[in-house]
Amino acid sequence: MDEKDKNLINLLRENSRASTTTLARTLGLSRSTVQDRIKRLEDRGVIAGYTIRFNDEYRQRQISAQVMMTFHPQYSATILNSLKKMPSVVSIFAVSGIYDLITTVRAETTEELDETIDNIGILPGMEKTTTSIILSKKYEM
User: Fold this and answer.
1) CA 20, CA 84: separation in Å to the nearest integer?
2) pTM of the predicted model, to two decimals?
3) What is the mean pLDDT of the segment spanning 18-43?
């Protein structure tokens, strides 16, 4: 991956809906070259898909929490699949240390957050959860 590819990825990260014409103009490349680069990045698995990024004002209105959990190892696949199906769970990390997984949960109300945390806690094989409400974002890329 060269500098042009890295710049292209950064532009797509900022706005994945930008037209190839706009991307080409910004990068100083032809439209067909940009299309070829995007296709090559997709084919190589560098770009796996496109998504949305919420407006900071909307996201600030949401309540976020980190849920750390420990569970019986034989339930790890079941727990992971269950977490992926919960709409409020926005990320899942396998970690070393006393916890097995850490998830980020986002909800619009405390009731929705509480319900999601309860649903995590009752998953088969779950031993312990510890939740920390996120008070403010200091930095995010």
Assistant:
1) 33
2) 0.64
3) 95
